[in-house]
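Hello, quick one for you while I still have it in my head. No rush at all, and the record is pasted right below.
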Amino acid sequence: MGFRKDFMWGGATAANQCEGGIFEGGRGLANVDVCPAGKDRNAVITGHMKMLEMDGEHRYPAAEAVDMYHHFKEDIALFGEMGFKTYRMSIAWTRIFPNGDEEEPNEEGLRFYDEVFAECKKYGIEPLVTISHFDCPIYLIKKWGGWRSRRMIDCYLRLCEVLFTRYKDAVTYWLTFNEINMILHAPFMGAGIYFEEDEEEEKIKYQAAHHELVASALAVRMAHEINPENKVGCMFAAGSAYPYSCRPEDVWEALVVDQENYFFADVQARGYYPSYAKARLKKNGVFPEMEPGDEEILRKYPVDFISFSYYNSRCIAAPGGDQEEAEGNLFKSAKNPYLKFSQWGWPIDPLGLRITLNEVYDRYQKPMFIVENGLGAVDTVDEHGEISDDYRIDYLRDHIKAMRDAVEEDGVDLMGYTSWAPIDLISAGSGEMKKRYGFIYVDKQEDGTGTLERRRKKSFYWYKKVIESNGEEL
């Protein structure tokens, strides 16, 4: 049976991690630009260290990233050479509205994406566009506090209207917010939120989440009105939560973590706040304030498909145990003794992807799209100028096999797969360049030096065969 004939193979990037050129083309400053590399990054992205502009003491990797702003034609040609059917990318909000609240968009920014989409079309690549990939204009953070303010909804919808109208003939697949559940774990990176002392952080996060959920539903309505062919998806960071043991307390804790993870997709796909969320948020005094009509908006405009990132599963233990904690990701997790780990301490769990696919499909019964999955690793260029990244091929092969099993044997409805990332870029979590994901090596080093030359890795040729064979040749 295998993957459907029109399966959308490709790769995924985010503007703030690959474009650079943040002071060019009339672009304004965004939250993701001022997230520094180094020891203060975690404090900034979690909203516990206020940073709304660049200083002379930190390095800001997003400023240049891998300079796709000037290399996009070369990069998309390489994607075309691999045979991409789709390219998941994001729009930099501040290229279109530098402050975020202007009446008229920045034409130079719009023209840039006109050219990007024209290149995609040249190679028969269907764009899958994330409207907000951890993107919030600094001006709106200073003015209103980012997504903690309901006024953000109108600014976001103005952006949507411009994008849906301008690119009506170029784009039909859209995602409203990237990893929307990350607002609970990295609220400054996810929603432009930083906290003052003694603020009720959970209440602020869930209020901001409500604003994004309403904005997402209204964006679905607008997308369908402007072009009935548009398909709009939600996107969340997925990965099943395993109980650390069969101790009932561990099983319960894992269930609660799963529910927290699915909360956003529950609202976006089903159209209402689930009963567990209502009960817990009210009990904890953090249920968001809603305006009349909000619940009807959520109910009437659910998403067309479900997309998610999958890097690893999680292992959850109830408080009070003596289990070892896993390193790496922003999600807290116990160390799973049955799994191997990446160089950054992330568990490697291909079967977990099949489990997650089944859980998500059982839960929503809507088409699914895996829009991020990949291995961050240190790559070495050998004396012949080649990069033999067999470890990346092994990781991706095992995950694509698990994905194929979910389709063939379990009957899940899967639209496509875009690996993270087709080209080396800046890591969102750590801000590092040495944590490479791509099929394409970029000569950019941790200290910011390098020629920015692009070079095909061994995995480049491997993925090309995977696409050519529609996932049969792994």
Remarks:
- The chain has 15 helices and 14 strands.
- The chain has one domain: 8-467.
- Residues 8-467 form a domain with the TIM Barrel fold (CATH 3.20.20.80).
